[in-house]
Write a structure and sequence with these properties.
The longest helix has 23 residues, at 6-28. This protein is mainly alpha-helical. The protein has helices at 6-28, 42-48, 57-69, 85-89, 94-97, 101-105, 144-150, and strands at residues 36-39, 74-77. Strands 1-2 form a two-stranded parallel sheet. It has one domain.
Length: 154
């Protein structure tokens, strides 16, 4: 099996997130004004903000699918230190997750108004596109009570 670069794996993570959102949102039956998707991969954001034909076939096919699914959603960048997904990627055991507020609630700024969320203007030179290392994260505080109604975290 051919090994994928980290940027391509990150793109697959964004594709998986898009597919998950497509399946889960209709099931939740929760009215939502907007959907915000988060990644700490500035490269994935660069790919998603451009037309798919600009990239090679592998990237273009995935970007096209993600754009189709998430056309009405908002993609944002989250710094790695604020990314709850990084907690697990650094080898944290499940028992260690319990006291970590960031894992359960996301970054502290996420519960504030959108105008207080961090904004970044990331620009990546095209010559370095395949050399960047990034991680994917989705954070959503809406509907947590609804999930608990149907399931138990234990």
């Amino acid at each position: 099996m051919k090994q994928l670069s980290i940027p391509r794996l990150e793109l697959c993570g964004a594709q998986l997130l898009a597919r998950l959102i497509k399946k889960v949102l209709p099931i939740l039956c929760i009215p939502m004004d907007s959907v915000h998707l988060w990644t700490d991969s500035s490269l994935v954001l660069t790919w998603l903000q451009n037309i798919p034909t600009r990239w090679n076939t592998y990237v273009a096919n995935r970007v096209s699918e993600i754009q189709d699914i998430t056309s009405n959603f908002f993609w944002h960048h989250v710094a790695s230190e604020d990314n709850p997904a990084d907690v697990l990627s650094r080898g944290t055991d499940a028992e260690e997750l319990w006291p970590r507020s960031q894992w359960w609630n996301g970054p502290s700024w996420l519960v504030q108004g959108e105008e207080l969320w961090p904004h970044s203007n990331i620009v990546i030179e095209e010559t370095h596109i395949e050399q960047c290392k990034h991680n994917i994260c989705m954070a959503n505080t809406n509907g947590f009570e609804e999930i608990l109604r149907f399931s138990s975290l234990k």
